[in-house]
Design brief:
282 residues, two-stranded parallel sheet, two-stranded antiparallel ribbon, globular, mainly alpha
């Protein structure tokens, strides 16, 4: 009885303190981040991405908040989570083995292209005569492959995360796969269409993607921290309605922003720039 009473008091206090902390974190983010709307998005991308200018899409010579690969990964993850929320509801089972095999292929493609691209970068910055020159690249990296392999990874992340979210939140679960072949096909087709629009380099495509990719990045962090909060508070499988999870996701937002700001300030003090790491290009 005493433990229950203490828990209730803590939850009541948290319902007041967490929103205040969230507001303070948002204000700190607005103060610390660079000026302008895209500058605020840059502060999110800066925490998770190298932001090398030559490896990013540009709007009038102004790079997007994330590099081409991270843009594909995080905008797609955000879109894929929203897509599953609409078509899958509270389905909580992992995909079938066949779908998992496709997702694993996306993961492998991401790893291969990322490793090849990283090797290419090291060879470019290492100068002539570097031992890395003896290691051949599989191919010359480019924005098309970065975008599409990043998008594949975003689909894989969302497909694995969404059923975990449902398994953690709801008291009543729908024990069916959250992503089946038909939904996967529709999702992949939609992402391919969006990627083709991005590759036109039109500002009409790039401006929305700049926002969606940064918001997708923050959303993933918020979800992870919200689930952590739920686990710590021992609230697993106790929710029946979305309105009941506001406190957990407010706590997730607070912790996500604190992490972003902490990484931003550390990196800024180390590099002195909101752009890519000094000395890295290409």
């Amino acid at each position: 009885m005493q433990t229950t009473s203490q828990t209730s008091k803590f939850e009541t206090a948290a319902s007041y303190l967490v929103p205040i902390a969230a507001i303070a974190a948002v204000i700190a983010w607005f103060i610390i981040a660079p000026e302008g709307a895209l500058g605020k998005l840059d502060a999110i991308g800066y925490a998770v991405c190298h932001r090398i200018d030559a490896r990013s899409f540009q709007i009038d010579d102004r790079q997007l908040p994330l590099c081409a690969r991270c843009t594909g990964e995080f905008y797609t993850a955000g879109v894929a989570l929203l897509f599953q929320a609409v078509v899958s509801g509270r389905k909580s089972k992992l995909p079938s083995r066949g779908v998992l095999a496709v997702l694993f292929a996306f993961f492998v493609a991401f790893g291969v292209d990322g490793s090849n691209s990283y090797l290419y970068l090291l060879k470019q910055t290492g100068g002539n005569g570097s031992p890395l020159d003896q290691i051949p690249n599989l191919y010359t990296p480019n924005h098309i492959l970065r975008l599409f392999t990043g998008s594949g990874m975003g689909i894989a992340l969302a497909a694995m995360l969404y059923p975990v979210i449902n398994q953690s939140l709801w008291r009543a679960l729908d024990d069916r796969p959250a992503l089946e072949w038909k939904q996967l096909g529709a999702l992949v087709a939609g992402i391919i269409g969006i990627n083709l629009l991005i590759l036109t380099d039109s500002p009409f495509a790039l401006y929305p993607i700049a926002y969606i990719s940064a918001i997708g990045t923050l959303s993933l962090l918020v979800i992870v921290f919200a689930l952590l909060w739920i686990i710590i508070m021992k609230q697993d499988n106790t929710f029946e309605h979305p309105r009941e999870i506001w406190l957990a996701f407010t706590a997730g937002l607070t912790l996500a922003l604190l992490l972003v700001l902490g990484i931003d300030l550390f990196r800024l003090s180390f590099t002195g720039t909101w752009g890519g790491f000094p000395g890295l290009s290409g």
